[in-house]
From TrEMBL:
This is Serine/threonine kinase 33. The lineage of its organism: Eukaryota, Metazoa, Chordata, Craniata, Vertebrata. It comes from Scophthalmus maximus. Belongs to the protein kinase superfamily. One of its GO terms (molecular function) is protein serine/threonine kinase activity. Residues 316-325 have a biased composition (Polar residues).
Length: 350
């Protein structure tokens, strides 16, 4: 991998725009000499010392260190005075969130495969003391656009801008900065008493829950109530779709979405769980039943406004005050490193 000062368009032919966010624009591109397809993230250099500069540096530094089948591959970096270009492998299937929106929910077999490969990537990261801190459907890419039609959806974890390399699991490496995306954020991350790599496991639990039913495990009309729900309520399986999901899958979700991280399932434990390894029998649900469930979800969706599907998921970069009842702003500023103590129900064990 090399960093180059070069005219990128002499080497790559830029194609369609794949996406755009506050951090840059992503294009599909073809390497002119080899005729191979790649994705190129174009990032205009922000002011020196800004949070975006740090995030870009974190992402490049971590992607240079990792090599895993389910983590996005960084081919090279091109640096110009005004712009940085990251050349990565192309995932033509787009975000996993968009595939979920089309399908409404995933079957248990599809979900098992996705969560298994996601957990494998997280085990790899955690062994290297890397904490992602922003695992969510938008940051999981689908390699091929046709993979939504089978049980073997090939995913890639991406967007390491909020990731950190902690240097170990000791108390001196406990983190306190609240960051990430609200509905995926672990309660200890909001508490101010410190958190570690266990925050990624909570996020995996949220992703798994959403894959199976199409909705987040905690959903409220206001951000303040959502924070209170995450810390004070247990995960439930009340929607009708959960009747088609095995008890083994629900048990995993209960173990992942535990408020106290000391009792939360680790990535290794998840990979070794019989539900993942195939040592348990998952009942096959007739396709007509699944179609009926999807139709029901579509009808319910058409009657409701303000669902998570239609709302953007901006990152939480704001100070959490001494009471969760104060307003919470989801903006671009960096969060305070000294948020308040959590409600009495929550007790952090390190």
């Amino acid at each position: 991998m090399t960093e180059k000062n070069a005219e990128l368009r002499e080497i790559y032919e830029f194609g369609r725009k794949l996406g755009q966010g506050s951090f840059g624009v992503v294009y599909e591109a073809t390497h002119i000499e080899t005729q191979t397809n790649w994705a190129i993230k174009e990032v205009c250099k922000p002011a020196a010392g800004s949070s975006k500069v740090k995030m870009l540096g974190h992402e490049i530094n971590i992607l240079k260190q990792v090599n895993h089948a389910h983590i996005i591959h960084l081919k090279e970096v091109y640096d110009t005075p005004r712009t940085t270009y990251l050349v990565t492998e192309l995932c033509a299937g787009g975000e996993l969130k968009q595939l979920l929106l089309r399908k409404k929910f995933f079957t248990e077999d599809e979900t098992r495969h996705i969560i298994s490969t996601l957990a494998d990537a997280v085990v790899y990261l955690h062994k290297r003391d890397i904490v992602h801190r922003d695992l969510k459907l938008e940051n999981i890419l689908v390699k091929s656009p046709n993979e939504g039609d089978n049980d073997r959806i090939h995913i890639k974890v991406t967007d390491f801008g909020l990731s950190v390399q902690t240097g170990g699991v000791g108390i001196e490496n406990i983190m306190t900065e609240a960051c990430g995306t609200l509905i995926y954020m672990a309660p200890e991350m909001m508490s101010g008493r410190g958190y570690s790599h266990w925050c990624d496991m909570w996020s995996i639990g949220v992703v798994m829950y959403m894959l199976l039913c199409g909705e987040p495990p905690f959903l409220s009309k206001t951000k303040t109530n959502l924070l209170e729900e995450i810390i004070n309520k247990d995960v439930t399986f009340t929607q009708s779709i959960w009747a088609t999901v095995s008890d083994a899958a629900k048990n995993i979700l209960t173990c992942l979405l535990r408020v106290d991280p000391a009792y939360r399932m680790s990535a290794n434990q998840l990979l070794e769980n019989p539900w993942i390894t195939g040592d348990t029998n998952v009942p096959a649900i007739p396709s007509n039943v699944l179609d009926m469930m999807r139709n029901q979800l579509e009808e319910e969706e058409s009657k409701e406004d303000g669902r998570w599907r239609t709302c953007p998921s901006p990152p939480l970069r704001t100070q959490l005050t001494s009471s969760l009842r104060s307003p919470v702003a989801l903006g671009e500023t960096t969060a305070s490193t000294h948020p308040p103590h959590p409600p009495s129900r929550y007790s952090l064990s390190v």
